[in-house]
Amino acid sequence: MKILPFQIPKPSNTAVLFQVDKGKLYGEFHQHEELQISLVQKGKGTIIVADTVHHFTAGDVFVIGGQQPHVFRNEDDALLHTIFFSPESFGTAFLDLEEGKGIGDFYAFAKAGFKTSATPDITALFDHLSRAKGIHKLSYFIQLLSILKVATHKPLSSFVYEKKITERDGKKMNAILTYTLSHFREAIQLQSVASVASMSPNAFCKYFKKRTNKTYFTFVTELRIEHACKLLRENPEMPIAIISEASGFLTLSHFNRKFKSLKAVSPREYRATFNSL
Fold this sequence. Notes:
By secondary structure, the protein is α+β, with helices and mostly antiparallel strands. It has 2 domains: 16-155, Regulatory protein AraC (Jelly Rolls, Sandwich); 184-275, Arc Repressor Mutant, subunit A (Orthogonal Bundle), CATH 1.10.10.60. The protein contains 11 helices and 9 strands. Helix 2 (101-109) packs across helix 4 (134-150). The N and C termini lie far apart (44 Å).
């Protein structure tokens, strides 16, 4: 199977595809022209979208724009319900109608992607879409887009990757991400990760920056901070110094500085917010 681009196995006679993924999720960095709306029914882990890293857990909803490179990495058995669609599947004539304009508008609105939380209405619409056919399926789909358009959400990325990534690039980026996800808790040497991509350190730095709009070590820092956030949420008694070390930081002061720079609060304040819920 090609890593990039990824072809959604969609029947030719449907505009909206509903898909269920169980157990281990597809773990290759990939992209596709279809916009993806995923509801995490079960499981937790990490999702990388373009140039950003996010944690996911049950009840999260991710809207991933068309052609945005992404990968889900789950830590345990997962259950993911996903809807795929592309405006072209509806046909130009329908999209030009007043009733169809919202579909193209949503596709453009969600190009960089966003994360929100599943409300009872969103969960119910996913359930309806898993079983509905014909005009009923279209009706539920449009309702879902309308709700997501006004939902409180967090952008996934500020970087929209407009180009189709070649299969060769996809394999190279996947090797880089696989290595990074396995070693971010350690002191990563530039030479080591560059060798994974079969490149010199200088060429690797330029390659990564061009494709993600950020330096490699900025990306590693963000991955470490997201892991620290997970530990802070799930281990209220774990000392922050231990969390710092377990997330790959050599000193507590460096961890505190980077954490506040990315999250606008200290690790202690971040933990207190979740403990008060």
